[in-house]
From TrEMBL:
Protein name, as recorded: Uncharacterized protein
Region of interest: Disordered: 90-127
Source species, domain of life: Eukaryota
Biased composition annotated in UniProt, kind: Polar residues: 90-100
Amino acid sequence: MTRMDLFNILSEGSLFGFLDKKHREDFVYRVLEITHAPPHSHSRVKHSLSLFLSEVQKKWKKSNRHRRRFLKANKEWLGITVHLNFETEASTSGTPTDTTSKYKRGRPRKLFSESSDRSKRRKTASLRREIPENELQFAAQMKLRAEGKVDAARVIKDITLSPQRASTFRRAYKKRDFDIPKLPTDRALALMVEAGLSKNQYNLIRAVTKEIGCDVFPSYNQIIVEKSKCHPDLIVTDTKGEVKVQDLLDHTTGRILDAQEEVLKSHNIAENLHLISKWGCDGSTGSVYKQRFANATDTDQYTFLTSLVPLRLVDESNGNIIWQNPNPSSIRYFKLYVISNLHIH
């Protein structure tokens, strides 16, 4: 019996009486009479017909209750055969009564991959209980090989050979997250200076690399600490900032030696080193920034500064160059050692 046959029975007498409860009941009993359904199957047949009526009602409303439009739009659907279940409850053991029904009642079943761990354990409980462990392992290997996942199959084979191998694989997998070396703090500071990165830009780059599992950049606070090491001992007042020349030279030489540590280790460097530098001075007038001073007579209208730039560090014993300034005219290696506000009378 096709759905079209059921539809014709439904439309006998009062057209589309399925909208009325009495006509729906008459339709069910009419089908039971035509099919000679045994009494023990009436409840299951009624359930199948109820699903059919629900589908027809939806499609009828969608066709604006127009018979010709309904028949044209649902021609294929009406041509499908409906298998009414005349078997007993025990013999069917939960088999759907209308195998052609598109919609099934109850909560839809999730795919295994979408289920929670608890649901997966429940669904595989009988499998784990009835099949030995070694058979499950071998079946998993063969299934992975059949799907082209050869590496995964080999891993399962290796880790199941002995408990020690499984532990070794696990330790190696966890250790991989710690093999990415951190960028040294001085290198990170040099990167900020070279690229002209602000604090926000640096923190943004660091956050993005951490999100993808590459925690290579030190924190910005570590950058600040490293930056403070670049400053010699300063003497600062309201109108002057200065550093002693010897302290400036010692500090500059020390920082160069720290940066050239690998060079010093690879060569037999003597202790007698010579730092060659250049110095100069400059001044500005006329720019007043309305800076308040403790002394009312002080002003920043006239500023004078003296600076030093390291050029080369040489080993005097053999003349080898330990370090050379690649950009002697750049302000990158500029060392300011006196800045003061002059009083013009």
